[in-house]
Amino acid sequence: MNRLCRLRDDQSGMSYVFIGMGMMAFLSASMLAIDVGMLMTSRNQAQNAADAAALAGATALVYDDFDDRSPTGPAVTSAIRAGTANAVMGAAPSVTPADIQFPNDPTGQPTRVRATVYRTASRGNGVANLIATFFGMQRSDIVATATAEASPANAMTCVKPFTVPDRWIERQTPPWDPNDTFDLFDSSGRPLANPDVYIDATQSGYTGYNAERDKGMVVRLKADNTTKLAPSTYQPWAIPGSSGGNDYRWNIANCNTNVMPFGFIMTQEPGNMVGPTRQGMDDLIARDPTAYWDTARNEVVSQMNPSPRIVAIPLFDPEYFETGKQNGRNADLKAVNFLGFFVEEMRGNEVVGRVTPIGGLRKGTGYGPAPEGAFPKVIRLVQ
Questions:
Q1: pLDDT in tens, 331-340
Q2: What whole-number distance in Å separates Cα of residue 383 and Cα of residue 380?
Q3: Burial class of residue 260 in the structure, from the number of CB atoms within 10 Å of its CB (0-12 exposed, 13-18 middle, 19+ buried)
Q4: Under a CB-based contact definition with an 8 Å cutoff, are residues 31 and 132 in contact?
Q5: Which tens digit of pLDDT belongs to each residue from 294-344?
Q6: Is beta strand 127-128 parallel, antiparallel or unpaired with respect to 139-140?
Q7: Residue 82: what are its φ and ψ, rounded to 5°?
Q8: Nearest to 152, CA basis, from 383, 357, 307, 311
């Protein structure tokens, strides 16, 4: 009996119980500290991969082909390539063509690219656990999604100090071509019965330049020495805070960082600026002398990204210009859009180049909404 009482009161060995319980707590804490931390890192890396994939897809829509959303098209293949190039815990995530989708934006336009990346057991690439393995959790699933948008810009920078008229619907000698002239009035100043038509970028049915339709179009720019408004004639203008021949030449060859909204009135420079235009263009071409337009791929080839020879030229409203002259005003230059233009060469006093897509800015207060027909696009993450 006494022996039984002693056994009942004996506490020897209890330390092993506490040690065992402590080990369980330690392992649980280790799982939280190691595995959860690793999973959080995996999740961040997967999100980076999804962001890169979505942005690459949206970039391809703007610069390669806006309409090709096929599994082998540039938007899908660029998104997959960017997504798999961003490793998640040392291994490429799984991204298939089905994981790249093209939802509409809130206005119903197909401007978005959604990319989803996977490191999951079902795809054979789940993230291996460490401590959690002892609790039967061999791998964890990691999934991340991002959506990017190629949306219209509402402002532009690095704008060149000369401007050309925006494109219109040619009624006199259709269809429109670079040799046409914009005509609203006859030689006596009377309105034409069938005048040319211009609709600006803020309205439905915009008639101006389009980055998809006009990509690769050859444009020859020459000084305005006529009384008729033609697509190829450029008008020098003074960027705010910068005027005169020397500034004009510098602004052609370099980036003036003034931010320009849509709809502002440009102040014309006196004269046609033929000399400074040629000098500035020579300086600009010398910054990237080996760049060229690849006609087979219909794009610029350059060792620089982007080439400084891809420039933004403001487009002015031809109807505002012509009606202003007719009503006795100065020939006002109202900026209605910004054309992407690759400078190929100077040919005599003419600037020869090609229409090309270009990126723009999305600014807040004071810049107004982005015009539906804006030529420059902003590539940004929206989700």
A1: 689 999 999 9
A2: 9
A3: buried
A4: yes
A5: 999 999 999 998 999 999 999 999 999 988 877 766 668 999 999 999 999
A6: antiparallel
A7: -70, -40
A8: 357
